[in-house]
Amino acid sequence: MPQSIDTLLTIMARLRDPVRGCPWDVAQTFASIVPYTIEEAYEVADAVDRGELQELRDELGDLLLQVVFHARIAEEAGAFRFEDVVAAIVAKLIRRHPHVFDATGAFLPEDGRRADPQDIAAAWEDAKAREREHRTSAAAPLLDGVALALPALSRAGKISSRAAAYGFDWPDAASVVAKVHEEADEVAEALLSGSTAAVAEEIGDLLFAVANLARHAGVDPETALRAGNAKFERRFEAMGRRLQGQGRPLRAFDLAAMEEAWAAVKREEVKG
Prior knowledge:
- By secondary structure, this protein is an all-alpha fold.
- The protein has 3 domains: 91 residues, MazG-like (Helix Hairpins); 84 residues, Helix Hairpins (Orthogonal Bundle), CATH 1.10.287.1080; 49 residues.
- It contains 11 helices and no strands.
- The mean pLDDT is 91.
- Pfam families: MazG.
């Protein structure tokens, strides 16, 4: 039977009922369910990466539940309701798509699809910057608003993007490549020093430079790293199966044999 968002809101309200609801749900707070919210977002990304659309349907439902859960806790505190969440995002979408909607939300006579996607992205970032300036004081941190809970690599990309909006940026991707090489050299120097703290600091600088390179190349660094992880896992498993097929455990092979098998796996991937 088809269900509506109202059904979900009703169920959430009943689960939070202090007398007849679920004790676990009643005990939750904004802070206690944040880890679940983050986890569900990652599970959505994982389903997308694997092209599993039925799993994506289910994971989107789990993520929607997190939105409803937060909104219910807020409503109980007298802060806002789920409807206010919807109204806020509707207003934002209309405000940030002036090439599609007029101020009332009606379609403009022009065809929004004819606008250049790069110009639209730039206008979106400009609108976000103006909104931040409007709601913050002059004393507020210039890079305020980049969520601390983001994965560090994603946050690095957003911080650098925010700095670039002020004009503090490399002119092109080639300049960032040079910076990556510079930071890699500094990691090598730190390794020679024997200082773990120095190595950690320089590796942090290197990763930040790589996140900047991804931004200049139009690549999401977190997505790129997830893909890199998946590729390594796929090739490592294939390498292991190739060697273990000889009747010995993987640990019995030396590095040279592993590298030879790894190269063979890569060649097969290129061919296939």
